[in-house]
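If I may wish for something, please walk me through the protein I am sending here so I can picture the backbone:
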Amino acid sequence: MSGGAFTDPAALAAALERGAARTVAATHAVMRHRAQALVEQVQHNASGRPGPRVITGTYRASWRADVQAAGPVVVAEVGTSAPQGRRLEFGFVGADSLGRHYAQPPFPHLGPAVDQAGPVLVRELNDAVKRSL
């Protein structure tokens, strides 16, 4: 919809539909790209202090991104299935289920990556929507 006046309601509806389809496709592409960039930043942050140190690399490699679209809604989920993820990010003080006592400090690696990625995602989504319309 690059300007102009619509006198035919059907033409206006068709133009809006085309714009909506382009916008969803553009936001999906941005979300895929930014979700993968977030995974890479988390992996970088989890490669040493102030994040957790790498011992085997298995935890770092466990991070994944999944992007889904349902109609006009596009959602990206970034995470790990590794059981130590929460403990590494937030720390742990107390006894575990086996009775072992810990005073493990947090090694934030996801939070700082999200803080960094948020403004970039918003800017890129805004640009993609403007370009698609």
Q: What stands out?
A: The longest helix spans residues 9-45.
